[in-house]
Amino acid sequence: MPTFAKNTGDLFVELKNERNVEDYRQRNQDEFVLPLHEYLSSLLAEKNLSKPDVIAASQLNREYAYHIFSGTRKNPSRPKLLALAIAMGLNLDEVQYLLRYAKQSPLYPRNPWDSTIIFAVEQKMSVMQTNELLHKLGETQLLI
User: Fold this and answer.
1) At CB < 8 A and 24+ separation, what contacts does 90-94 make?
2) How many other CB atoms sit within 10 Å of the CB of residue 128?
3) Phi, psi (5° rounding) for residue 72?
4) For residue range 14-53, what is the model confidence (pLDDT) as tens digits?
5) Are the C-beta atoms of residues 143 and 60 closer than 8 Å to each other?
6) Tens-digit pLDDT profile for residues 3-14
7) Residue ranges of the alpha helices (H) in the chain?
8) How many beta carbons lie within 10 A of that of residue 75, not counting itself?
9) Which end of the chain is more exposed for a tag (fewer CB within 10 A), N or C?
């Protein structure tokens, strides 16, 4: 998860007192989140993973996955993001952060489908194993 010099509350205070948004943006450009594809690339580097290996493990269509990583596909669906997260071996906190980062709802343990994904992440299941578990429980699989 990225670390920033300023906390969000400080940024809010600064922005509320700002008279020129361009000055605020210039002064705080290092405080803004990266585009999703850049964040995914930073996760690959941080975890020393190769893009082809993650894409293969995710079971996503190869071309589609490369579009996500290149930024030409800007808003991948929640299940596709989860497939990438599982393929990267992210822990639950990292998965939740990735979902929020991509403007998707975090996993919710009161939701049967979400609780199955949480279980799969905690058990370090592969995408294939996760899909098998979802199928066994009568739930929609990650990749249809």
Assistant:
1) 90/43, 90/121, 91/121, 92/118, 92/121, 92/122, 93/1, 94/1, 94/43
2) 14
3) -75, -20
4) 999 999 999 999 998 888 878 999 999 999 999 999 999 9
5) yes
6) 778 888 999 999
7) 8-16, 21-27, 36-46, 51-58, 62-70, 78-88, 92-101, 112-122, 127-136
8) 11
9) C
Nearest to 55, CA basis, from 76, 84, 85: 84
Domains of the chain: residue spans and CATH: 33-136 (1.10.260)
Residue labelled with tokens 């605020």: 24
For Cα atoms 55, 77, 120, give the angle at the middle one, nearest 5 degrees.
Answer: 65
Tokens of 69: 């990583």
Residues 69-101: pLDDT tens digits?
999 998 999 999 999 999 999 999 999 999 999
Kindly report the pTM of this predicted structure: 0.84
For 127, the token pair is 């995408």
User: Which amino acid is it at 144?
Assistant: I
